[in-house]
Each structure stands twice: as structure tokens, then as C-alpha cells.
Write a structure and sequence with these properties.
The complex is a heterodimer. By secondary structure, chain A is α/β, with parallel strands linked by helices. Chain A contains 7 helices and 9 strands, in the order E-E-E-H-E-E-H-H-H-E-H-E-H-E-E-H. Chain A has 2 domains: about 130 residues, Rossmann fold (3-Layer(aba) Sandwich); about 70 residues, no CATH class. Chain B is about 80% helix and about 0% strand. Chain B has 10 helices and no strands. Classes of the chains: A alpha/beta, B mainly alpha. Chain A: Keywords: ATP-binding, Cell membrane, Membrane, Nucleotide-binding, Translocase, Transport.
Chain lengths: ~250, ~250
């Protein structure tokens, strides 16, 4: 299957006070359509920056990003931020409909689609609430619904569950797997949590070093639904940890 | 202190204030023509209403107030948004602002009269200038203070032009700060109303000057209290509107 995203020779550096800082260096990465790709690495390794380049919030210094999405896609990619970043002056339903306001749909249809997305993340009852009335986990679900509402072909998620307590986090991990299975979207998911990575991923890419490079690229072929603390998952995580510490000591 | 007790104390304080005020002219401590006792005010108020002067003056002043406030706050918000959004606009206007901002609103009275005559438009002009700077700086600061992260959300969803940034993020996010400025302006505008009308534009201020030249100080007090009441009314209404507009806040 042809890749939906093809990153070639991507580097990103910025200059401040005459000092040049490289965040990412000569990155090559091809993401097949429909893959759940998890990018792990320590903080400061450029994981988030990579997503920001993909969604055009940051410009690469060199390299190209090839995107092979359907030509009629209005919003090929959507990003879920680490902190939900809901717009506090909009009710939940209007937050979910936010991205649709660019799509030239009548208001009733935007509302219908937003309501359907809220149902998908299990928050249909909270449509009329204000963001400040929600828990952290609910806010993040709304952010996921907002990203899905624009029907992106690729869903980018930047450490979306790292600010949540572990109970909520596990619930949302299962939820995102279910949504992935239901919608078949390509997902690029950034985390620093290796257990989370192996639980969710079809493939784990490890970024390490400064500037960040791809240090390991591992397929996780365990069947779904997966069970947490399954022996094979634990083994995959152990292998990945070993790989990660070996690579970072090399670099 | 309970709410009831503090309300009781407030009532006692007001009663004592009115008592001293009433006693001073009655005991001939001051000339009643210089300080009319509060008991004489209702009758004066009745005469002003019966003669039609009160409704006319209030209607005139209110129209200056509302139009002046609208023009001044509207211009303040518009230019404050521009200045908050675009650095080049802020730089372009930086020295103009430095030059004009320190000039008190009332210093514009001579030009107001030369340009507009002793007309309602002169009052509107003075009120608008008095209000403009407050709202301008409140708006500029509020736009500057908008969370960059929210602007990024708009960009990530493809809202990248300045107009979309303004309507989707900046304006709603800056609304609380803008409203604080407008509320301050609400009070400032009454000062400008009186000032403008004291120079002859018909309204409450002009009526007060008329009355004081005839030593009808009870009528002056009627209009002073009228202004306090009108300001209280507008401020209460505005606070209610503010609460409704900002009902999304915790």
C-alpha cells in the first residue's frame, strides 16, 4: 500500500541570539495508510515539533513532506493537543463544530456532525455544557471529537493523555483504539510512555538524540483487542526500553 | 458580618448623612441658598417634572451620552483591535498616541465649539474623546493578552487569515478585557456629558448652570442626584449584560 505521508530529509533548526539549535535532523519516514504509528522519545527530542511541521504550525529548514490524501479532502490532518485547548467561550457542541466552519456547511449540518462525533466519544449528554464544567478526561474527549469532526485522513495526537490520571488515561487509550478500528484513520500518536506506545501501536518509531533522529523502528504485530500487561506486550516494551537506552547511550 | 447587618449599617450611615445635611441649613449653620436641605428636593423635583424641564434635559443628555459613548467606544475598540493585532500599526501610531493621549478630554472643548458650534455634536465629540483612550488601551491590552495556544488551535484547523483570527479567536477571547474598559468608560462618559453641557449644549449640565445662576440650588441637587441615578442604572444594566456575555466563564 502506498504511504499516505512521506517525509524526506526533514530538518528543523532555529536561531536565537546568534546560536543555532537543531531540533530535528535528516528525518525520513513513510507512514502507510491506516497505520497506528506511535512516536516515542524523551522530551525535547522533537516529537511534537514533527507533528507541528505536519500540520503547518512550524516550517522545516530543509526536506519535504509528501501528503497523498484524497484531492477533495478539506482538512487532510487534524491535531489533538496535549492540553485540550477548547475555546472556553463555546459550548461543547460548538467546540466540536469549530473546524467545520471552514467547510461551507449549513449550521444545522455542522451541528448534526458535531453531535455525531460527541456520540462517538461518549459525550452526547454534555453538548450544551461549557468547557470549564468538564473534567480533564472529558475535555480531551471533546478535543478528539473536534479533530475527528473535520474528517481528517490523518489524526495527529500530541501526548494527548499525558496530563490525565492513569485511570482516565487507560479509559481513553481503549477509546482511541475503538475509534481507530471504527474509522480506519491513519493515526500519528506522540508519547513518552513506552507502555502506552506498545499497547496502541501497529508500529513504534523511537526518536532519540539532539537533534532528534530515528533511533529504532519496530512493528508491533500483536492482535487486537490487546490486553494490558499481556506477556507479549510486556516483552515488546522491555525490548523497546533496552533499544532506547542503548541508542541514547550511543548518541 | 451578615448581609442584613451590613445593609442595616449602610442605612444608618445614609440616614446620619441626610440628618446632618438637613440640620445644617435648618439650624442656620449654612445659608439654605448655598445648601438646600434634602427635604426640599422632592418638591423641586416635582416642579422640574411638571414644567417639563426634567424629561427634556434627561432625554437630551442621554442622547449625547449614548451616541458619544457609542462613537468613542466603537472607535476605541476598532483601533485597539488593529493596534493589538498588527505590530506595524502599533509602530505607525506610537508617537501619535504619545502626543495625543495626555491631552485631557476637556481640553478639546474650544475646538469642539469651533468645529461643531454649541450643538449636540459638540457634546458627542467631547464625550467620545473622553471615552476613546480608555477603551482603546483596554482593547489593545486584551488582544495582546490572548493565549497564543488558542490562536494555534485556529491555525491548526486552517483559520489562518487575519479576519478569521479576529472573529474566531481574538474578539471572543478579548471580550472580558474590552468590557472592563467599556465599564470604566460608562462612568467617564457622564463626566464628559456634564462638562460639555456646562458650556451650553442643552441637557442636564446646561440646566444645572441655568439653575445655579438663579441660585436655585435645590434644582442643581435634583440634577446631581439624577446623574447618580442614571449612572447607577446604566452600570447595573451593563453588569447584567457583562454577566450574560461572559456566562462561559467559571
Amino acid at each position: 500500500m502506498s504511504p499516505i505521508i512521506e517525509i524526506r530529509g526533514l530538518s528543523l533548526a532555529y536561531e536565537r541570539d546568534g546560536r543555532r539549535t537543531e531540533i530535528l535532523s535528516a528525518l525520513d519516514l513513510a507512514v502507510p495508510r491506516g497505520q497506528f504509528l506511535v512516536i516515542v522519545g524523551e522530551s525535547g527530542v522533537g516529537k511534537s515539533t514533527l507533528l507541528r511541521v505536519l500540520i503547518d504550525l512550524a516550517k522545516p529548514s530543509t526536506g519535504t513532506v509528501g501528503l497523498h490524501t484524497a484531492p477533495d479532502t478539506r482538512t487532510p490532518m487534524a491535531l489533538v493537543f496535549q492540553d485540550a485547548r477548547l475555546l472556553p467561550w463555546r459550548r461543547v457542541i460548538d467546540n466540536v463544530a469549530f473546524g467545520l466552519e471552514r467547510h461551507g456547511l449549513p449550521k444545522a449540518e455542522r451541528r448534526d456532525r458535531a453531535a455525531a462525533m460527541l456520540k462517538l466519544v461518549g459525550l452526547a449528554d454534555l453538548a450544551g455544557r461549557w468547557p470549564h464544567q468538564l473534567s480533564g478526561g472529558q475535555r480531551q474527549r471533546v478535543a478528539i471529537a473536534r479533530a475527528l469532526a473535520v474528517e481528517p485522513e490523518v489524526l495527529l495526537m500530541d501526548e494527548p493523555f499525558s496530563a490525565l490520571d492513569s485511570f482516565t488515561r487507560e479509559g481513553l487509550q481503549d477509546e482511541i483504539q475503538r475509534i481507530k478500528a471504527q474509522t480506519g484513520k491513519t493515526v500519528l500518536f506522540v508519547t513518552h510512555d513506552i507502555d502506552e506506545a506498545v499497547y496502541l501501536a501497529d508500529r513504534v518509531v523511537v526518536l532519540a538524540g539532539s537533534p532528534g533522529r530515528i533511533a529504532a523502528d519496530v512493528s508491533i504485530t500483536l492482535p487486537r483487542p490487546r490486553r494490558r500487561r499481556d506477556a507479549e506486550l510486556v516483552e515488546a516494551a522491555r525490548h523497546l526500553r533496552a533499544e532506547l537506552s542503548r541508542r541514547s547511550s550511543d548518541l | 458580618m451578615t448581609a442584613l447587618r451590613s445593609a442595616g449599617l449602610a442605612a444608618v450611615g445614609l440616614a446620619a448623612f441626610l440628618g446632618v445635611w438637613e440640620a445644617a441649613p435648618r439650624l442656620d449653620l449654612v445659608n439654605p441658598a448655598f445648601l438646600p436641605p434634602p427635604s426640599s428636593i422632592p418638591a423641586a423635583f416635582g416642579r422640574e417634572i411638571a414644567g417639563g424641564a426634567w424629561p427634556r434635559a434627561v432625554a437630551e443628555s442621554l442622547s449625547h451620552y449614548v451616541v458619544g459613548l457609542g462613537v468613542g467606544a466603537g472607535a476605541g475598540i476598532a483601533l485597539g483591535l488593529l493596534s493589538g493585532m498588527f505590530r506595524w500599526f502599533e509602530s505607525l501610531t506610537a508617537w501619535i498616541v504619545r502626543l495625543l493621549r495626555p491631552i485631557p478630554g476637556l481640553a478639546w472643548v474650544p475646538f469642539a465649539i469651533i468645529w461643531f458650534g454649541v450643538q449636540p455634536s459638540a457634546a458627542v465629540f467631547i464625550i467620545a474623546i473622553g471615552v476613546f483612550w480608555i477603551v482603546f488601551f483596554a482593547t489593545q491590552g486584551a488582544v495582546r493578552g490572548v493565549d497564543r495556544d488558542l490562536i494555534e488551535v485556529a491555525q491548526a484547523f486552517g483559520f489562518r487569515g487575519p479576519f478569521a483570527r479576529l472573529t474566531k479567536i481574538l474578539l471572543p477571547a478579548a471580550t472580558p478585557g474590552i468590557l472592563v474598559g467599556v465599564r470604566t468608560a460608562l462612568g467617564q462618559a457622564w463626566m464628559a456629558v456634564v462638562a460639555a453641557e456646562i458650556f451650553g449644549v442643552p441637557g442636564i449640565g446646561a440646566r444645572m448652570m441655568q439653575a445655579s445662576s438663579l441660585l436655585s440650588t435645590d434644582i442643581v441637587v435634583v440634577y446631581m442626584l439624577t446623574m447618580a441615578a442614571l449612572y447607577g442604572l446604566f452600570d447595573t444594566g451593563f453588569v447584567a449584560l457583562q454577566g450574560w456575555l461572559l456566562r462561559w466563564r467559571a
